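Journal club prep, notes for RB
We'll compare a predicted complex against what the paper describes. Inputs for the NAP case:
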Amino acid sequence: MSQIYNRVALIGLGLIASSMFHAIKRAGLAGEVTGYARSAQTRDTAREIGLCDRVCDSAVEAVEGADLVVLCVPVGVMGAVAAEIAPALKPGATVSDVGSVKAQVIAAVAPHLPDGVHFVPAHPLAGTEHSGPRSGFAELFDNRWCLIVPPPGSDRSAVDRVEALWQGMGALTEEMDAEHHDLVLAVTSHAPHLIAYTMVGVADDLRRVTDTEVIKYSAAGFRDFTRIAASDPTMWRDVFLNNKEATLEILGRFTEELFALQRAIRTGDGDHLHAYFTRTRAIRRGIIEAGQDTDAPNFGRSNRG
Ligand code: NAP
């Protein structure tokens, strides 16, 4: 894979930015990668572990001369960061982001960008429950989707270059409009996270089940909820506050289905439960066939894992 950008700037140096850096280096996609994070502690860590070719002490310094700037900060601060860097952007540069919500991010960022700077929002559908500069790895995006969400009228060659970068980092890409993206993600990611947070919260409240029992017997299903519920609190607070409508729509449907299942249990309607679980099992099979998960028992983990 050959170089796509001369200079790339990563703003925010957490899981996604650090994985991008490693994936860019793996394939030689950029000449130089600069980076900036809000805290001196994260910047020092980045310098210590060699994350970025150059770690800068201000966002403005990091974006100066960059051909591509990628905002890798929580969704709620994208607009403020865009306002801060706007005057320093090179004419003809492209700004992108990796935020988990798109309509609100576009509304917050686009007004700050000067004429002649392209904006190509993107969202890699890959992550772990870990965060921070040490959590990234080059393989994070391999064979995962990255949705590209160009606003109407975007410059075609700028979009193609961002898409080529993600493909070079191992991802599969597809273009989508922002509203559709937010609805799809509410179903596949945002509502499931809220449900996991709730389930772990409920278990925590249930004092008749001791803490040790919850942990000891967690492989019975609960453990997979705890992994999701360990995700970064700031990131997820911002996701729900910024994808309000779609998340509420899906949670409304979820509640209706939950009531229907609750009623089937109460009335002993085994046919309803069996038919429902048969349908959901087929969805799991579809995900495996699409190469988006392993069918190894227990997600390929050892029993101790
Ligand atoms: P993360 O590991 O928590 O890192 C966030 C980074 O943003 C940190 O380096 C933090 O700096 C920096 N930051 C926060 N506020 C800032 C500000 N005002 N100015 C400059 N830097 C700031 O987060 P992440 O998981 O990489 O997520 C980053 C973005 O990717 C989010 O928008 C998220 O929605 C999206 N995303 C996440 C996942 C996932 O599963 N994690 C997947 C796809 C997309 P400090 O360390 O100094 O606080």
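Talking point for the session: The two ends are 35 Å apart (CA to CA).
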